[in-house]
Amino acid sequence: METQGPSPFVAVCASCDVSLLSVDDMKRHAGHTDDLRRNMEESWEFQIAFLELLRTKHQARRVSANEVYKTYTQDPQHPSLQLTQWKSLNEFVFWLGQEGLCTIDRKPDGLHIAYISPIHRTPAAREREEDRRRRIHKIRLLRENSTSVSANQGKDGSCPTPAGASGQFDSDQTMSTVHIKSPAEFQKLLSSSRIVVADFYADWCGPCKAIAPLYEQLSSSLSRKDVVTFVKVDVEAQKDIASTYNVTSLPTFMVFREGKAIEKVQGADPRKLQEVVKKLVKEVEGGSASGSGEGSGSSSGGSWRGAALPRGYTDITDQIEPKGCELLNADEDFGPVRVLFDTSKPSVLAKKEGAKDWVESGADDQLLLFMPFQSMLKLHTLQLTSLPPTDDDDDEAPMRPGTIHLYTNKPHNLDFSEADDTPPTQAITLTEKDWNADGTANIGLRFVKFQNINSLIIYVTKGDGDGEKVRLDRVRLIGESGEKREMGKLEKIGDEAGE
């Protein structure tokens, strides 16, 4: 049959592939589509902000969704749930479970939720998340392009090139960053460049792409040939490198000096990344990072350590809150508690006279050290340095620690009777063979028991020998630091007035 008259009006919406048969249809759909796009953007922003709070505050721990949302709503800058596609918090939480972004449990007090890091999500979940990211990116480009067209359309009616069409979103075009192609190439750079800053990323990771422009900006402005080198490591293509350095979340940024890992930043935290990198480069330019770093006085990278760092972990001793520390049964004739965290080499090893930069027990061979932290820590290794005199004729010479009990997440110090009655998180027995030539014991911890800790108590229950005193010169904490804690007023517990 031959159609008479003009051909029917047909248009297709580019963003949702809907056929529109009239100008009125097109106008109605345009208004509806604008609402849909706004709703999609609000939903995306809400999802990102909620998951980032869950990740940074609770990591992979299972927590009440209501408690997380209560914390979320305390920040007025956070997107509102009411503007999203979900009608209730429960509907949103179930959606997170269906999408493979979190695990969900029903409890008597409501739904409980646990974050799944991108690297542990299923390929299907990662692809769905990447598809959402692409759709949001497309919506924003369309809006920006529409605004640009209406504001800048030329006299001849031509339109400017759409934002992003020239490829400015492709960070690979920045030539100052080295894209690692093999473990051998990475090791070669660690050997040839004094400082290496590494960005561990994946193509499917939205936060990785969000922070990529900042990383490239830092790379362009701070790179120095054979001094400071910025690299990118694709964890999908270089799984061996990611495994070697214990990269478990994305993005992860690591800083290496003289081939050793000294800093680790997890998550797309622009402020922290800039602080870490710029501080290190300033050290290099000022010449304070020369040599092995011993005695340089920097908090993590330049502090003295009596043993090597475990691969993939950093010195996080600077996360101790010194003002809140307490040491019981310490002899006042020796150094205060803060000398244990001093970044310099112990005076005995540095051959310095005069300074008593260590602590000794007083009445017997026990010490009880309480350390609160500025952030939540994952503790992997404890390094203790003890350098008693080697004069065998001195009957009063202090001993090294022999038996140690560790306690985590205590709000304040225990007294000795409490410590004796409390099962330790981990008990450790040290013998002479555990101490190296620098007088340091490198103590591996049961990592699963030292996740998300906000304080640590080291209880030296007895020394290694028959003496009456024990000595400690340095304490180093090795692991990963997380979200900064809000430090309230620190008070000593149990002191009587006037003591």
TrEMBL record:
It comes from the Eukaryota. GO terms for cellular component: cytoplasm. Residues 164-282 form the Thioredoxin domain. PROSITE patterns: PITH (PS51532), THIOREDOXIN_1 (PS00194), THIOREDOXIN_2 (PS51352). The keyword Disulfide bond applies. Residues 146-171 are annotated as: Disordered. Residues 305-497 form the PITH domain. Coiled coil: none annotated. Residues 146-155 have a biased composition (Polar residues). InterPro entries: DNA/RNA-bd_Kin17_WH-like_dom (IPR019447), Galactose-bd-like_sf (IPR008979), KIN17_WH-like_sf (IPR038254), PITH_dom (IPR010400), PITH_dom_sf (IPR037047), Thioredoxin-like_sf (IPR036249), Thioredoxin_CS (IPR017937), Thioredoxin_domain (IPR013766). Keywords: Disulfide bond. Belongs to the thioredoxin family. PANTHER family: THIOREDOXIN-LIKE PROTEIN 1. This is Thioredoxin domain containing protein. It comes from Colletotrichum kahawae (Coffee berry disease fungus). The lineage of its organism: Eukaryota, Fungi, Dikarya, Ascomycota, Pezizomycotina.
